[in-house]
Amino acid sequence: MVFISTEVVIARALVEKVSKLFKPDNLPVRAYAYYGDMNEKQCQKDFSDINVAWNELDCVAYTNTVEAEISFEVMGHFDIIIAITNIIISVHVKVLA
Questions:
Q1: pTM here?
Q2: What string of pLDDT tens digits covers the 97 residues of the chain?
Q3: What is the DSSP letter of 22?
Q4: How many Å apart are CA 73 and CA 94, to the nearest integer?
Q5: Long-range CB contact pairs, 6-12, < 8 A, 24+
Q6: Nearest to 43 by CA among 60, 28, 59, 29
Q7: What is the Cα–Cα distance from 54 to 75, expressed in whole angstroms?
Q8: In sequence order, which residues have a C-beta less than 8 Å from that of residue 47 and are 6 or more positions away?
Q9: Cα 79 to Cα 82: distance, rounded to the nearest angstrom
Q10: Which helix (H) or strand (E) holds 54?
Q11: What distance in Å separates the CA atoms of residue 11 and residue 32, rounded to the nearest whole number?
Q12: Which residues share a beta bridge with 32?
């Protein structure tokens, strides 16, 4: 599951709540939030190979301050992607078709 949010407060709150959940195999959900003023060393480490970093997670939440060049390319890893924004535009989006 990937949450995309424009607000760091929302991203951090989502990860806090999701981290308290358990998967069907009774293992805890592994979640992490990425945002503009986060730990720079952790950010550099994870973004140096995003496929490895995110493949170890069950849930990722990030804000629009995350670098645009990020491309997670492990097919089928996340079941769903949810964008939470405060932008109002009249666009129809076909998701996960």
A1: 0.71
A2: 666 666 778 888 888 898 899 999 999 999 988 887 888 888 888 888 989 999 999 988 887 766 667 788 899 898 877 777 666 555 555 554 4
A3: B
A4: 20
A5: 6/63, 6/64, 6/84, 6/85, 6/86, 6/87, 7/63, 7/84, 7/86, 8/33, 8/35, 8/36, 8/37, 8/63, 8/65, 10/61, 10/84, 11/35, 11/61, 11/62, 11/63, 12/61
A6: 60
A7: 12
A8: 53, 67, 70
A9: 10
A10: helix 50-55
A11: 9
A12: 60
Spell 31-50 as b/e; 16+ CB within 10 A means b. bbbbbeebeeeebeebeeeb
Taken in order of first residue, the domains within the chain and their CATH numbers are: 2-84 (3.40.50.300)
Q: Rounded CA gap, 49 and 46, in Å? A: 6
* Amino acid letter, residue 40: E
